[in-house]
Amino acid sequence: MRTDRVAVLGAGAWGTALATSFHRAGLDCVLWGRDAETVAAIVESRRNPRYLGDIALPEGMKATTDLDTALAGAGIVVLAVPAQTMRGFLSAIADRTPPDAVFVCVAKGIDRETGRTMSEIIDEIAGRDRSAVLSGPSFAADVASGLPTAVTVAAHDIEAAKALAAALSSRTLRCYASDDLAGVELGGALKNVLAIAAGIVHGRALGASALAALTARGFAELRRFASALGARPETLSGLSGLGDLILTCGSEKSRNFAYGAALARGDDLGGMKLAEGVHTASVAARMAREHGIDAPIVFAVDAILAGRISIDEAMSALMSRPLKTET
Ligand SMILES: NC(=O)C1=CN([C@@H]2O[C@H](COP(=O)(O)OP(=O)(O)OC[C@H]3O[C@@H](n4cnc5c(N)ncnc54)[C@H](OP(=O)(O)O)[C@@H]3O)[C@@H](O)[C@H]2O)C=CC1
Ligand SMILES: O=C(CO)COP(=O)(O)O
């Protein structure tokens, strides 16, 4: 695997933050964005005001709107566009990518149309030996600011995951390796749905005890998804599961949490930033029904977002479920 040259595709919050981190780590990294104004701001003013406010980006960081320039010679291609655009985006760029380059998807979601995870999409379009994911508790603003962060990098082959983790780590971004792709991806995608639920609890001022209960019972749902879908439940106790749940179920800096809070307060949702859980909720609920997974919180979020039930009805349904032993 060639790990010295990295292309990061997608100059939103997360792509810009990761490119910043890789540049600081000494990698030869080029950030690609489709929006000329954003790319010009990154190159000329060392800022990405649209997505990262006034956080100062490092000197010498490379950014371009030219895809072929970004991809030339890249051994690692980081995919940092929203999950629901991943299939179309990867299909369009795969042939323009060096044939031995590995794709590292950093989007957190499940494809709504097909129910496939991001790595399954890469497997299908580019091949199994070329797919990897990076996921874990990591706000873009923290990573771009150089604050200490830890994430998991997963690939089908543990040696490939270790090589990627070693290449992408730095003094501020610590990457752990895993070969449980499904577990790492389920954690990242489903915590977004649970963070919306947590935001709803916060927005309705239901109290810290309710928020803790919601987070713990959400974690139980994550583990059930893992067991039913061929992932290792213990992976969900790691960074891309429990770690990300703790982060995003407890902070309005999470866009999913903020979305849930705004929904619960009855605020205008137009113009809110990307909240991947809004798109993942329906496919997660569908998968749970198909696989017989007991996932009351995921079902409730899906039903609220689809307008089938009100927040109050969902709360009272969750609280009046039959009493059971804790599993
Ligand atoms: N922000 C964070 O803290 C973290 C985000 N993530 C995940 O990373 C993924 C991306 O999130 P984030 O960067 O925050 O999102 P943003 O909304 O900040 O940025 C999305 C980026 O994708 C680009 N884009 C959107 N659609 C397309 C398309 N069809 N083709 C090419 N480019 C496209 C946008 O371009 P344009 O500006 O031109 O619209 C923009 O540059 C999500 O899945 C998210 O869950 C993971 C960890 C942390
Ligand atoms: O995934 C994230 C942090 O790990 C970012 O969460 P939000 O997309 O909810 O902001």
UniProtKB/TrEMBL annotation:
Enzyme's top EC category: oxidoreductase
Protein residues bound to substrate: 108, 255-256
Superkingdom of source: Bacteria
Entries under HAMAP family matching the protein: NAD_Glyc3P_dehydrog (MF_00394)
Annotated ranges, domain Glycerol-3-phosphate dehydrogenase NAD-dependent C-terminal: 180-315
Binding site residues for NAD(+): 10-15, 140, 255, 273
Protein's name according to its UniProt entry: Glycerol-3-phosphate dehydrogenase [NAD(P)+]
A GO CC annotation given for this chain: cytosol
Upper lineage: Bacteria, Pseudomonadati, Pseudomonadota, Alphaproteobacteria, Hyphomicrobiales
Family membership noted in the UniProt record: Belongs to the NAD-dependent glycerol-3-phosphate dehydrogenase family.
Organism: Oricola thermophila
Domain Glycerol-3-phosphate dehydrogenase NAD-dependent N-terminal: 6-160
GO molecular function, one term: glycerol-3-phosphate dehydrogenase [NAD(P)+] activity
Record bears the keyword Zinc: no
Keywords: Cytoplasm, Lipid biosynthesis, Lipid metabolism, NAD, NADP, Nucleotide-binding, Oxidoreductase, Phospholipid biosynthesis, Phospholipid metabolism
Binding residue positions for NADPH: 14, 34, 51, 108, 140, 255, 274, 276
Gene3D superfamilies: N-(1-d-carboxylethyl)-l-norvaline Dehydrogenase, domain 2, NAD(P)-binding Rossmann-like Domain
